[in-house]
Protein: Putative NBD/HSP70 family sugar kinase
Amino acid sequence: MFPTTGGATGFRCEPGRAAVDRWRTAARVLDAVRRTPGLTRVALAEQLRLSSATTTETVARLRTAGWVAEERAPVSGRGRPTTSLVPAADGPRVLALDLRHEDWRLGVAGLDGVPTVVASGRRVRACPEEVGAAVAERGAVGLAVSFPAPLSDGHVVRSGELDWTTLDLARLTGGSTLRVVQGNDATLAGLAEARSGAAAGAGTALTVLVEVGLGGTLLIDGRPQTGAHGAAGEFGHLPFGDPAVECACGARGCWGPEVDGYGLARRLGAPAPADPRTFATTVLDRSDAPAVAAVAGASAALGRGLAGLVNAHDPDVVVLGGLAPRLRGAAFEEAYAAGLMGWRRAEPTPVRDAVHGADAALHGAVALALDEVTSAEGLARLAADESEQRTPAGPAARLDALDTEVRRGRRARSHEEVDRDRTG
Ligand SMILES: [Zn+2]
Structure:
């Protein structure tokens, strides 16, 4: 889904198909527990169409390996007693690095996906050393990095005021073989809203973030549609703007520079601001007539473009993040309604404000890191890395050892479920 880069230590073998297949059932169970913490074992078996024996065995292995914990579930009606599954409080951890235009933050999270910020700073150049130290100290099993810049094939293709392209990502892993995955901040903010925010449960969701420029993502069943090179969602570069204005991307007439701090400055006849985000918040706080008119212009440009995206993508819901909720006034509503195709106006696609606020990209980066490490491929890689580093106490290696033991026992019993679980 997202571009992935390897760890810092160069060549390593990718686990083979058979090794990955062994982790498929465990990966599906971890995914279900992440989506629905507190899911009962009975409901899990039904949802994943697993036999009771396979469910019991997989859950026992994941519990022993430290990923999930079981709690006694209340019995309703005549139902059989069961347990509910929750992320283990002291289970494996992932790290998420949120690089922003003015600072950076490092969060740590378990399977529950809720980050705690453990380090931060203003000098982006200094962050590799601090992140590398945190990786070594905390024994994390994955790291995701959020960039405030477009990415293609895992590379920053255009840096803004800060030169992200020269940031040495290899140094982030502190010399370990930790996997690093990366995403664009607007895409990750959308991922956070789809998993645990204003777009949770939506089949098709469109998220739009206004910061410096505009970005977003189209999500289907909680998965961002990132295109052939991971570069999709650059909605800010749709030509919905003034063709006379050249965008920093090199194109003319982009939508982003109509709605952000640069757009507000142009409407006010002010020079391009050094910090467009701070400039935008200052203008949004003003109540004088020129500021109100400039904001109304940006609001209308946002509403009109959003209607175009809704006409194109037909989402269940639109979520606005960053500065965008502050641009929702009468001018926005009018332009949004006017831009929708006539038949849509009776029941316009609802537009909601994001719930994750300034932490959206951090939450999204955690979700991305967890998606990576709890996939069948991620679990197989983790097991391979741990056995290579001779850390048999690691969560995946423990799981692997248990798995082998269980299989030996099963073979002895010639149990018919072996094949079903293997292909699970
Ligand atoms: Zn552009």
Observations:
- The mean pLDDT is 86.
- The pocket of zinc ion is lined by residues 237, 247, 249, 251, 254 (CB under 6 Å).
- Residues 1-197+358-424 form a domain with the Nucleotidyltransferase; domain 5 fold (CATH 3.30.420.40).
